[in-house]
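Thread: quick sanity check before group meeting

JM: Hey all, I'm pulling together slides for Thursday and realized we never actually wrote out the predicted structure for the chain we discussed last week. Dropping the sequence here so it's in one place. If anyone has concerns about the input, flag it before I start.
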Amino acid sequence: MSVNILIVGGGSIGERHLRSFQQIRCDVALCDTNDQRRTQIAERYQVQHSFESLEVATRETWTGIVICTPAHMHAEHATRAAKATKALLIEKPLCTRLSDAEQLQSSLLGITAQVGYVLRHHPAVQYVRGRLAAGDIGALHQIAVTAGQHFPTFRPAYRDIYYAKHEAGGGAVQDAATHLFDLIQYLAGPLDWVFCDYAHQELAGVEVEDTVHVLGRADGGKVLVSLALNQFMAPNETHVQLNGARGSLAIRFHEQRAGLYRLGDADWHWTEPLIKDRDDLFRAQAKSFLAATRGEGRPFCSLEDGIRTLKINLAALRSGRERAVQLIE
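JM (edit): ok, ran it. Output follows.
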């Protein structure tokens, strides 16, 4: 049977999803209300079917629908799209309000729903998960993440898109740190509480935070967590280190590799680079989504996982405003 995928939203992330599904031989259509953007993308990727509204697009039936609109619109668009498919891939963050997440839970019963936390698909992350499960570093006690990039270089339109407003899913907490919150929970277990400090330091033309520091505990208090992230520094680097009783594991996303350092070793043992570019992750995510639509395993990042990370986003923002520790229910 042919696989037809509808991409809802033609921004940069929608375009990446579109070409990734095309590259794994799916028939892909685009829905975008911006006539100029929709026409340009359709011509660039030779998309045969495009739609100016979700109302029109959902008159057809789709193998899967990918929601790539701004986060505050995810719940509405996913609910409307569910009448035309049995499978939804919803970009991160899942939404911006817990009430919207609760609406999604009730409206998507019987729907395969996956949330787009794409770092879960990185082979370096899977390597570390395997080593943790095998007990190679003993009991995990600490995870530390440091990350940053020059955001204007990678997203020059940041002033004019969702990023400029918290209510649309903008700011460093909901845009970049949320990927790392999900990763921390994927590796170390659910976060129990967070204390967050954030500030607008450098990015011109916006007032949302571009720098985030977070402390927390995960897995019932057993794992100490720290995260430091900014969106203005010159190098584009993300370091993750997990320290256990008998050794350490590390991921260097900017080098696309992972490492292991056991007690008694003289140095790190690094893998070779495990992917060539970021699209590799999105193709892997597309394949895992299609497998989930066929009932071949659960979604890589479930709706419940996405809600858990949404709670971290909201707790971090609340903590930054109130200067107080926030428990995660």
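AS: nice. Residues 111 and 145 are 34 Å apart (CA to CA). The chain is about 35% helix and 25% strand.
JM: adding both to the slides.
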